[in-house]
Amino acid sequence: MNYLYIFLAIVLLITAGLVVDHYRMRKIAMSRGKPDICAYARSFDFRNTDTKIMREVYNSVQEWAGKYDGIAFPVQSSDSFESLYKMDPDDLDDIYIEVAEKLGISIKEAEKNPYFEQVKTVKDLVLFLNNQPKLKNA
Asked: Which of 12, 39, 50, 69 is most buried, judging by how many CB atoms fall within 10 Å of its CB?
């Protein structure tokens, strides 16, 4: 019987954490207003950064972050994957691989990239992908 109480306590704590995180993200989303990809794009040097990568990362992160009151989360380039999104590194890897595959970007030899193990924000992810070589057949 004690195991049941421990299990229920764990489930309750996890549920409470998810609810608190949902309201935290909702508050941030509501304070930012409607999503504005133009403001996001202006935070990059778009002459030296592939705009397709900028857009695809924006869309992928926005999809991951979800909707609040029917409005997609307003992603900003300075958003931290760890502190704001509380994103698991595996989820970040999934976004990286998904964007790379969609846009024909190599995921090999990532350790040679100057942004390797430096991706902390949405902008860092865009710059990391921008510095990866393109696949020849893409």
From this structure: 50
